[in-house]
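Q: What structure does this chain adopt?
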Amino acid sequence: MVNMLYLYGIRRRLNFVTQPWQRGLDVELPLLPPRSGQNYNFQIAHATFKPGRQHELLPKSRTFYTTIIRSPIKRFVSAFAYYGIDRQNNKAEDGQVLTLEETITKWFDQNNTVFAPTNTTCSLGPVVNGLSKDLGFQQYLDRPGTLQSKIDSFIEDLAQEFDFVLLTDFFDESLVLLKEQMGWEYQDIFFMKRFYTVDRSRKDSPLSHKTIELIYKFNIVDVQLYNFFYQTFKIKMKAYGVELLKDKTAEFRRKRIEFENSCFNKPEEDGKAETFNRDWTLTDFGGEEKSCTLLHMRDILLDFLISELQVTKDFTAPDSEEMMQKWSGKHSPMSPEDKELVTSIQKAYDDHGVKMNIP
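A:
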């Protein structure tokens, strides 16, 4: 999805809130400037939500605020693996490998006093209540009152901040609803899944009701947050029309896969547990349609590209060289091939918008 939004911004020469020289984004720290004489238009980097500062950068009156959230169980299991907790705890005393469920239970048993919520507080970190941490719950934890009152205030405020909250569990449907609200074309929401897990047998292993309730207990803020926005998502689905959304989503999926298959020759899956589709090769159409390449690039490289576009005002600013010297060491300059890529994408958009002659 990040590449999709980068492509949208590059085509239209928009300005991103970004710090390409560091991992992640902290809006309280110095930021890459927008194009000279312009304002910021977009923020898509992963960052802790800080409404006060966000409104300074992207005023609420002219900004459509959106984010995407994941179901608490799937988010927890994913973070449990990503941060190495599963790998560090999946052995029994006799050396036997524990199931995912056994590992989760063991970890919570060992850390019950650390992670168990109380009447006034709860754990907040990358694994437990990680979604709420990213959306700024820490400032609510620091307030007086019961934990439940803090959660209620947190969700109430977020409901006012965000115009639309996408759900990963309904990813395609979310994109279609976003497209409809923004007045976009299907081509604006085309994406490619660059990295995917082939063997999901452990991540997708079934969890008992007891273990699910355990995860819910410790992730009390994430659970309530997700449940609220899940209900608001259902309301939006109903308002749009459930059957109409179903038809539009099916149409989008068909068009997106048709586009992806026109862009790339895809080898057979090799059976590895995790695969990056670096072995995809461009078709003749993909070589001509530069958005294929951009949607397939690593997002960190795109961060560098949009940064240079901003500081040089798309290579047109008279002080481009001076600006690049100021930011030297912050990122590597574009190669001639990269410049040709972005200028071709911008020219194509100038000439005919997002229309493509997909074979």
